[in-house]
Amino acid sequence: MGLLSSLPPHRRGGALSGCWQWSFLDVVWAVFLLAVFVFLALVFTPRRGGGDPLSVARSGGAAAVPPCAASEVDLLPCEDPRRSSRLSREMNYYRERHCPARGEAPACLVPPPSGYRVPVPWPESLHKIWHDNMPYGKIAERKGHQGWMKHEGSYFIFPGGGTMFPDGAEQYIEKLSQYVPLKTGVLRTGLDMGCGVASFGGFLLKENIMTLSFAPRDSHKSQIQFALERGIPAFLLMLGTRRLPFPAQSFDFIHCSRCLIPFTAYNGTYLIEVDRLLRPGGYLIISGPPVRWKKQEKEWDELQVMAGALCYKLMTVDGNTAIWKKPAEASCLPNQNEVGLDLCSTDDDPDEAWYFKLKKCVGKVSMVEEIAIGSIQRWPDRLSKPSARVSLINNGANLYEVDSQKWVRRVSYYKKSLGIKLGTTHIRNVMDMNAFLRGFAAAIVSDPVWVMNVVPARKPLTLGVIYDRGLIGVYHDWCEPFSTYPRTYDLIHADAFDSLINDPISGTSRCDLFDIMLEMDRILRPEGTAVIRGSPDLIDKAAQVAQSVRWNAQVHDSEPESGSTEKILVATKTFWKLPLTSQ
């Protein structure tokens, strides 16, 4: 019997039968061990996407995507100073695009700031916007005396001035018009480098000139945000180590008003990039340093020498403003210039401009004289008449005509049958995510809108044709976020949405549908509209994601006369504010 016989009688039976008499301490230990076991099971058991709401939304479920923190109201995934501050300062590399790796960007809905309201409509917005939509007074404080902007009550007011034209953009434009044909239809597309709040481009709109203004995120971090809120074409961009995301020979003039770009530094790399972008016969306008600027005599001399090596003609030097005209014929290089400028090799494509390193040579371009200022049609004729560059596209002339006619019909269907408010004060800033030859933008040119035509970087490089039409746009890859602030577009249009997700060659998926639509939500203004065209299967999935990002969406058939099986998703972004609870 041993130890068992030495136990008290009431415990002998319990030991033999397995019926334990529990003490309070035994119960506490048992509960603790069970809790530890459950915790470990939850931590180490693999999940299959069915748990958290974000995983459900990514997999096509209808779970609501959570809001971002209030501190992320101006989230810029690819221009985030938390990332860029760790990068090299050489040639301003750290101020260029640097996007998070796939899956690293915040997967949340960017909230509007407290006090946000539907923006002031165009054209009133050219002169004033709501203060609370971007309550940042730094520029008004620093630049108010130069006429940039000022704070008055509930508004920011824009008198139209700039550092080099404190008396107003209109007076400055009159001055430039003495030397540059800004009011005759000869010029249509312009690039304003380091644009401030884009008053120069804004006041050129009444001259039927479409100026794309750009500036980086810097100490005046919101200048592009102010420009877009005003309804002026603008883009977040830095001239650093890469080509700008535009085609060669695209802008009729390029303007720099105290942009502080060191054009002749790095063997003239930046001036070479300007030359790549400027249309033959176009105008280069530099106002401010180094033009006749104290203590920058050396830089001013170097700029004149380098422009001369490119055979640019100096039209005038008026105070601190210099204006050159680019030759309307093929480059005069190679020549015996004293700065070592030469042509690039024949394998260089000057239209390649997506994450493409700047070169220290001048690219060889085709059809120079055919698309030069004076040869290309004046505005508005150039909008509808195909340029010589169309012939570089296989069956280009026919595609151009078909595309133009197709979009006239489709836009009519959008307005009459789908209730899209094109032509009203509800829509000013429009983005076309898959532009091709851009009959869509041409079909709405009479509406009070401007269109950012985006040509996907992996597709045929048709953006040059779009610029020849007198329209503007950029190259982009929709697997990455776009370089703009949140809440900057009223309408986002996406044709052939399947092709934005799938690789054009292999057909395999490159981008994530959820990520692209989350980025669309970041860009779209509250109560803005998204129009997505695609295959029925993809549109069904997009409708699920639309619900997850809190859009009100409807799926429609395509135009009856098109005979297409594709579907059209029309969605409105809801106007929500923090705090936001799940629904």
TrEMBL record:
GO cellular component: endosome; membrane; trans-Golgi network
Subcellular location: Endomembrane system; Membrane
Transmembrane feature ranges: 20-44
EC number: 2.1.1.-
Gene3D superfamilies assigned to the protein according to its UniProt record, in alphabetical order: Vaccinia Virus protein VP39 (3.40.50.150)
Main location: membrane
Matching Pfam families: Methyltransf_29
Biological process according to GO: methylation
Residue stretches in coiled coil: none
Signal peptide: none
GO function term, MF aspect, one: S-adenosylmethionine-dependent methyltransferase activity
Top-level lineage group: Eukaryota
Top EC class for this record: transferase
UniProt keyword Glycoprotein, yes or no: yes
UniProt keyword Zinc, yes or no: no
Family in the record: Belongs to the methyltransferase superfamily.
UniProt-recorded name of the protein: Methyltransferase
Taxonomic classification: Eukaryota, Viridiplantae, Streptophyta, Embryophyta, Tracheophyta
